[in-house]
């Protein structure tokens, strides 16, 4: 994967990978966890997470599976991509590479846990849910990041773990912070340089790999503390076969 794109071929991904695709002509990205067997577990709004087995091009009977009132859904890879390209989210990148990435929601400095742990979290949450969807505090990227790292933010009033959401909030923040300096800049190029620099720094400061307000939470403890139910291990295994 290069500096400008994280695009990969299907043959390059493996179970436990954090993948994503772009929607609405690259307006935003949708994230999920590839669990093997051409299946992806991802998180979306409840009203859009209804079963799609009738429209699944592969006729997978469990494509579109989700628990009632849960936004966590199991889809086949084709239904997840919706004719979009496939991208792989990067973990444990260096700070310099992270800030060099122009677009948020593509990588993190945090390290991923083992493949088995990642899949266990994803399948557990498929059965028990991941709370209410919120575009800034609890979205599809937050779900995938939690499955990969087990990290949650302590302050639920602030921005979530999502790099995509941080980018949206980071752009106006960068403009605001750089505005007092614009009078010191000899040209618009100088203003743009300062703004771009502040944008990158603000994104880096909200990355889960460097934040001080994140804690490691076991998925069983997460579900118990939020009052979710139990899951069935045998059913999990059947769904990813």
UniProtKB/TrEMBL annotation:
Gene3D superfamilies noted in UniProt: endopeptidase domain like (from Nostoc punctiforme)
The protein's name in its UniProt record: LRAT domain-containing protein
Domain LRAT per the UniProt entry, residue ranges: 20-156
InterPro entries on file: LRAT_dom
The organism's place on the tree of life at top rank: Eukaryota
